[in-house]
């Protein structure tokens, strides 16, 4: 068992993978997240700095949640997110749907190449279905 110090509060805890954050801080971050999510739902026009101030959450933390696609902004929101690839405006995450699809098909075509779609058409079909389902 690996023991680490929490990078937020310094408490020792049993490390189970992921960021070095203890269960207590993780739980309070989770509460914050729900609070922010609720806030955005009730205040769809709030800006990032407003959300940060009113919920006492750092802008970095908000941006991290957005990158993880846990927070989504409404169409009315002044929060401007852009796709990191093509600059298209998006509501959450790092890339627009189009770029995500392109990346997914690049990955799956690179993955499928050696087998040349002769032996296992069923499996290939299954994989692309799974990917479509995921987003
Ligand atoms: Zn902690
Ligand atoms: Zn894009």
Mean pLDDT: 86
Q: Rg from C-alpha positions? A: 20 Å
Helix content: 40-55%
How far apart are the termini? 35 Å
Order of helices and strands: EEHHHEEHH
- Spans where pLDDT lies below 50 across 5 or more residues: none
**Major sheet attributes:** 2 strands, antiparallel
Bound molecules: zinc ion
Give the class from helix and strand content and strand pairing. mainly alpha
> What is the 3D shape?
flat
Number of H/I helices: 5
Beta-strand level of the residues, as a percent range?
Answer: 5-15%
Tally of individual domains: 2
Task: Provide a quick synopsis of the model.
This protein is mainly alpha-helical.
Q: Would you write up a description of this structure?
A:
This protein has 135 residues and is mostly helical. It has 2 domains: 94 residues, no CATH class; 38 residues, no CATH class. The chain contains 5 helices and 4 strands. Strands 1-2 form a two-stranded antiparallel sheet. A two-stranded antiparallel sheet has the order 3-4. Strand 1 and strand 2 form a beta hairpin. The protein is flat and about 45 Å long. The relative contact order is 0.07. The model has no long low-confidence stretch (mean pLDDT 86). The site of one zinc ion has 8 residues, from helix 4.
């Amino acid at each position: 068992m690996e023991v680490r110090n929490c990078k937020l509060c310094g408490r020792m805890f049993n490390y189970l993978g992921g960021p070095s954050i203890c269960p207590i801080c993780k739980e309070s971050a989770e509460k914050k997240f729900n609070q922010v999510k609720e806030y955005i739902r009730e205040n769809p026009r709030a800006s990032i700095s407003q959300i940060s101030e009113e919920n006492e959450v750092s802008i970095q933390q908000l941006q991290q949640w957005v990158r993880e696609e846990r927070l989504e902004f409404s169409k009315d929101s002044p929060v401007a997110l852009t796709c990191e690839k093509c600059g298209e405006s998006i509501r959450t995450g790092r890339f627009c749907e189009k770029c995500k699809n392109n990346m997914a098909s690049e990955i799956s075509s690179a993955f499928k190449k050696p087998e040349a779609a002769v032996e296992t058409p069923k499996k290939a079909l299954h994989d692309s279905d799974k990917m479509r389902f995921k987003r």
